[in-house]
Amino acid sequence: MSGDGFFDVPSDLQHSYLGLVALHLQEALIPVAGGLVLALLLAQLCVRYGWLYPPVLWGTTIFYAIPSLAIFVILIDYTGQSRTTVMIPLTLYTLVVLVPAIVDGIRSVPEETQAAATAMGFGAWRRYLRVELPIAVPAIFAGLRGATAASISLVSVGALIGNQGALGNMLTDAMFYHRPMLAVSSVVTTAVLAVLADALLVLGRNLLTPWLPRGGRSGTPAAVLPGARTDTREKLGSSR
């Protein structure tokens, strides 16, 4: 396997089982991170300019419907049989999940909260970063969970172009060498990675949203602006 830059896994590890796991995570998670950055920008534009949301949604949906192999064929002329060829479409695929999740999360912010932020002198982008995004964290992480699981699964398709599928390469090896256990190992490992990634995202969401109820209880978190005091005991004590 050829090197692609800073994020390369050392060549002596690439052909080992753990090396394939590392490559798989690399090819899956970098697109999710890149897609999140793009989705945050697109979502802000879609919320600010409502007319932009439908065409963005249609565009991401249409792109997601295009078979990844067809995109690989187009990209190979420009990026060759490399991991970059695999990660570009995976990055764009994440948008079909992340953009609606972020837009819905931002739209769930109460109007009075947005008005209070504006009254405190928050501009559009400052309000977006410091008020709307923190409140939208649960919706964003819901989108991230779906996008991450899909990305981990789709990496294996890269095995069709120069063995760039990481754990998916074991599927082609299983067919070539008539060793079905390689396919089983690939599928099981991919599933375990998806479950572990999902568990880490749930943990991250819980750490970033301490106001959310736990233990299966339902409820809507209160919207609190930066600097606001939330000590219920102080409020109750002062009212006595």
UniProtKB/TrEMBL annotation:
It is found in: Cell membrane; Membrane. It is a multi-pass membrane protein. Pfam families: BPD_transp_1. The keyword ATP-binding does not apply. One of its GO terms (biological process) is transmembrane transport. Residues 230-240 have a biased composition (Basic and acidic residues). Residues 17-201 form the ABC transmembrane type-1 domain. Its main location: membrane. The chain crosses the membrane at residues 28-51, 57-78, 85-103, 135-161, 182-203. GO terms for cellular component: plasma membrane. Residues 219-240 are annotated as: Disordered. PROSITE patterns: ABC_TM1. It comes from the Bacteria. The keyword Lipid metabolism does not apply. Keywords: Membrane, Transmembrane, Transmembrane helix, Transport. Belongs to the binding-protein-dependent transport system permease family. This is ABC transporter permease subunit. It comes from Streptomyces liangshanensis.
